[in-house]
């Protein structure tokens, strides 16, 4: 590979992952705006966004992470064990955080899909370049509602102020380009490892959806928030169709 091509790839990865990651603090900024009135509309909107983010996560698992992860692993049955391992891994992480009384499922969800998917994106630039823009768009779409919900979650924690919360969320953006470049330089030539990371992330995402995110999306005597999950999943499928079939 020529130096110019390498330089172009690095800039491409940096731009894609940074733009996707910028949706984390952007979601936080939207959440920091004065609360919506009346209160029932505030509750409805927040729960809709939680469900919408969950729907996108389900779509990312079903449309991108599992199919591409299995493909990179040659459709080996070992892929199932990596998905199970991902669920068990993040079960352990959540229990550890629970012991320390630092549960933050929305923030954990942000990091869980943003960092592994950014690393996978870096590897896909070489392995499957056609999928990379779709994955970047999905990361951005996931990060916006997750950033919104993570802001509300963090801001309710003791010791956090709106400014401190947004500063912390902004610092998370840089983890995407770092993960993406690591994926480009170290994972592109190890497709089985790339696939394993995507499958482990899938298992962890599925665990978080059913343990934390889906229960939070329910609102008694309101039926529109769960539709957000349907919209999120359909948006993911539509994005995949645009890339796959033009």
UniProtKB/TrEMBL annotation:
Keyword Transmembrane helix: yes
Annotated keywords: Membrane, Transmembrane, Transmembrane helix
Top-level taxon of origin: Bacteria
Residue ranges of the TM segments: 12-33, 45-66, 78-97, 168-187, 193-210
Name used for this protein in its record: ZIP family metal transporter
UniProt source species: Marinobacter koreensis
């Amino acid at each position: 590979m020529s130096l110019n091509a390498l330089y172009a790839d690095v800039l491409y990865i940096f731009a894609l992952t940074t733009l996707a990651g910028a949706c984390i603090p952007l979601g936080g900024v939207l959440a920091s705006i004065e609360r919506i009135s009346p209160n029932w509309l505030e509750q409805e909107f927040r729960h809709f966004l939680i469900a919408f983010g969950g729907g996108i996560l389900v779509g990312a698992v079903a449309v991108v992470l599992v199919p591409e992860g299995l493909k990179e692993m040659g459709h080996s049955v070992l892929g199932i064990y990596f998905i199970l391992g991902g669920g068990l891994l993040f079960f352990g992480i959540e229990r550890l955080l629970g012991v320390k009384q630092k549960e933050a499922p929305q923030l954990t969800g942000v990091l869980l899909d943003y960092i592994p998917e950014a690393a996978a994106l870096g590897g896909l630039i070489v392995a499957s370049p056609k999928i990379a823009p779709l994955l970047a768009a999905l990361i951005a779409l996931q990060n916006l509602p997750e950033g919104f919900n993570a802001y509300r979650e963090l801001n309710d924690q003791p010791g956090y102020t709106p400014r401190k919360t947004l500063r912390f969320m902004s610092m998370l953006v840089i983890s995407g380009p770092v993960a993406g470049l690591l994926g480009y330089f170290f994972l592109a030539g190890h497709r089985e490892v790339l696939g394993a990371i995507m499958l482990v992330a899938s298992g962890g995402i599925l665990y978080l959806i059913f343990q934390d995110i889906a229960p939070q999306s329910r609102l008694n005597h309101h039926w529109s928030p769960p539709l957000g999950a349907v919209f999120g999943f359909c948006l993911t499928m539509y994005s995949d169709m645009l890339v796959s079939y033009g």
